[in-house]
Design brief:
The chain is of the alpha/beta class. It contains 13 helices and 18 strands. It binds iron/sulfur cluster (SF4).
Length: about 450
């Protein structure tokens, strides 16, 4: 039943946080559409404003609250405000008390039924968010969530406490969603999960990620050109997964390694696997097999007990690993985590200084890896158009959407979804300029 555009109620969904939240928002949108609502042009014209919150660290929580208050102010009279996502799940009643502006605070179990708040009737059908269909994609790439939750217990991380244990989707259901996305024009799939390499372990089938990649690679004749994986726990960066990633034509050699530190002592305190030497060995061996491989990682700085020499170990690791991209985060003690009450905290000013030192080592490395691409020919998926110049903007296999830099095709004409071969002409910080040499696809 298609809703009457004149009378249908309108919604606006605002998404904060990580790519996994973006997938949930897509599915919330699909459920609202299935309930007969239509997308509003913006928040101020919506009858229902949904904020998909993030609870990752204190600054993310504050941003979620600030955005909710700002959207609440912009609401038209009578419009409802619903808070959902990680903060709603983790701090449900506290959040409801702190933000009386919200008409409802809905945890994960209710995310597929948000329209109920305004429609005041029970929704029908399947409402498991992980399995809900999603709205038609508006970009030539899309996140695809293969599992929810996490079975590990990293000392700093609260995710398992509110996302629960890992729950892998079936390969059939993932393939069906991938096929739907590809048939709707998506040519790059970005596979996400809290701990993607453990996909299938909870269903008694460890090592299922490589077979899943084979299954998705078979969508190439339908238009799938790239598969990208995010969040690889380092102990799982080994064969047969690595061979599969390097051999399958659609899977890009982009390694998003969740390393967090290089000191084995600090990693053990974080209740994590590995050491700088092991990480370097894995990175070197992948580079030897695939010189085009790109690497990203995140690190926590100022974890309790982090000594000066451990911090120096991290700096030396960064210099040796020469990662293309790296993010650094100050440790934040999270409720319900093992690290919450650890003694020996690192003073905030020392953490800030260490963060600066990490950036001082990493920024020139990232810049050099971008400069090294000047003069090379690359394959670009055009994602959009630059507002100021009108030039197409896209990404090669080295840039994950919404996370890394982008590439601008100077003076070219190509629509989103087009694949363009281009020569890199300059590097501007994390971004690249390029000139098109050939175009194919939906230009
Ligand atoms: S693997 Fe990732 S999601 Fe799981 S507990 Fe560790 S940091 Fe959190």
């Amino acid at each position: 039943m298609s809703p009457d555009a004149e009378t249908a109620l309108r919604f606006h969904v605002e998404t904060l946080g990580c790519p996994k939240n973006a997938v949930d928002s897509d599915k919330v949108v699909a459920s609202l559409l299935a309930d007969g609502m239509l997308a509003a042009d913006d928040a101020s014209s919506a009858d229902l404003v949904v904020v998909n919150t993030c609870a990752f660290i204190e600054t993310a929580r504050q941003e979620s609250i600030d955005v909710s208050l700002a959207l609440s102010d912009r609401r038209k009279p009578g419009a409802k405000l619903v808070l959902t996502g990680c903060m709603a799940e983790r701090y449900g009643s506290e959040l409801a008390d702190a933000l009386p502006e919200a008409d409802a605070v809905v945890g994960f179990a209710g995310e597929g039924s948000i329209a109920e708040v305004v429609l005041k009737r029970k929704p029908t059908g399947v409402r498991d968010l992980l399995e809900l269909p999603r709205a038609k994609p508006d970009a030539p790439w899309a996140y695809l969530k293969v599992a929810e939750g996490c079975d590990r217990a990293c000392a700093f991380c609260a995710i398992p406490t509110f996302r629960g244990a890992q729950r892998s989707r079936t390969p059939e259901s993932i393939e069906a969603e991938a096929r739907q996305l590809v048939e709707a024009g998506v040519s790059e799939l970005v596979l996400v999960a809290q701990d993607i390499a453990w996909y299938g372990r909870d269903t008694g089938q460890p090592g299922s990620l490589a077979p899943l990649l084979h299954r998705l690679d078979a969508l190439a004749p339908h238009g799938l050109r790239r598969i990208r994986l995010l969040y690889l726990y380092p102990s799982e960066v080994k064969d047969p997964l690595i061979s599969t990633m390097l051999e399958l034509p659609t899977v890009v050699p982009y390694f998003d390694l969740s390393l967090q530190h290089a000191s084995a002592t600090r990693l053990r305190a974080m209740k994590r696997w590995g050491s700088g030497d092991r990480f370097l060995a894995a990175i070197d061996s992948i580079r030897a097999r695939e010189p085009e491989a790109a690497f990203r990682s995140n690190f926590i700085v100022g974890f309790p007990g982090e000594t000066e020499s451990e911090h120096d170990e991290l700096l030396a690791f960064l210099a040796a690993a020469r990662l293309d991209w790296a993010g650094f985060f100050a440790f934040s003690p999270e409720d319900g985590t093992a690290a919450q009450d650890l003694s020996d905290p690192v003073p905030a000013d020392l953490t800030a200084a260490r963060l600066r030192e990490c950036s001082e080592v990493q920024d020139p490395i990232t810049a050099a890896s971008r400069d090294a691409l000047i003069g090379t020919e690359v394959e670009v998926l055009v994602d959009g158009i630059d507002d100021e110049t009108g030039d197409p903007v896209g990404r090669t296999h080295r840039e994950a959407p919404e996370i890394d830099g982008v590439l601008r095709l100077e003076g070219a004409y190509a629509r989103p979804g087009a694949w363009v071969r281009a020569t890199v002409t300059a590097a501007l910080g994390p971004d690249l300029l390029a000139s098109a040499v050939a175009r194919e696809g939906a230009a």
